[in-house]
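testing teh design pipeline on a random one, pls ignore if ur not involved
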């Protein structure tokens, strides 16, 4: 039952991203630029402090627009990418000034790069919220840890299941947040924290799927994969502001792989 449910949600996600690939940057990407810019500033600040040259992977890279901008701030890096959507990868490959040395189709649960390949990995704009089962989430966290070199650094973000918004563009109440979570607990077609939704695309409804994390459950995924949490932030979805209060935004982690002697950097 669980495997069939997960496969159904995976098909929903695949269909959605294939259909929105061509308009993704001008719609969803543009609306969330403040959030993404804030995340990028944090990641680049850490990356500039790392030993050079860097080998970098953008996991679930989408259309490649993010690192097209970011690569200018890290000259001399080797940049690789992958995404589960063939349409997204085709755009990333063909875009003028593509930043990638190589970009290919693969999935977070089976990353087709060797062990200890990268100094820096980014997995941003909520790929972990598109993983449809607890087993896949654990496997993906271990895969990202596997491809990091000792002392390598991972930046990963996710949708906060208790995000109430900043009162600008998005807002929900505590009763709504609690009701949505409880509904996911009792629905046999969902895991706790899952949500199935629909938006209008090209004048027609298009289903989507997301998994929301608590701050502690998101941390546990990566500490369970052997990584140490080096930094964590709550970032407003509409403004990009960093908040002390967990309910004000979505989640970002900086995770370090310990070196061969068991030490973090």
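output:
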């Amino acid at each position: 039952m669980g495997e069939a449910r997960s496969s159904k949600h995976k098909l929903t996600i695949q269909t959605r991203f294939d259909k929105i690939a061509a308009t993704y940057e001008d719609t969803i990407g543009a609306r969330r630029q403040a959030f993404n810019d804030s995340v990028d500033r944090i990641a680049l600040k850490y990356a500039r402090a790392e030993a050079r040259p860097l080998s970098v992977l953008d996991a679930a890279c989408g259309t490649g627009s993010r690192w097209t901008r970011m690569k200018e701030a890290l000259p001399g890096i080797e940049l690789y990418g992958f995404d589960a959507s063939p349409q997204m990868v085709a755009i990333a490959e063909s875009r003028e000034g593509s930043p990638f040395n190589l970009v290919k189709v693969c999935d977070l649960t089976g990353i087709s790069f060797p062990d200890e390949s990268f100094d820096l990995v980014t997995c941003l704009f909520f790929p972990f919220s598109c993983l449809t089962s607890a087993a896949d989430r654990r496997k993906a966290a271990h895969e990202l840890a596997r491809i990091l070199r000792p002392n390598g650094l991972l930046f990963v973000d996710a949708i906060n299941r208790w995000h109430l918004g900043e009162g600008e563009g998005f807002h929900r109440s505590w009763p709504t947040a609690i009701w949505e979570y409880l509904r996911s607990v009792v629905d046999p077609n969902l895991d706790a924290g899952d949500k199935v939704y629909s938006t209008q695309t090209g004048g027609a409804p298009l289903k989507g799927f997301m998994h929301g994390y608590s701050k502690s459950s998101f941390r546990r995924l990566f500490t369970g994969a052997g990584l140490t949490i080096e930094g964590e932030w709550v970032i407003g979805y509409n403004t990009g502001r960093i908040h002390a209060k967990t309910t004000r935004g979505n989640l970002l982690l900086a995770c370090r792989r310990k070196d061969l002697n068991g030490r973090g950097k």
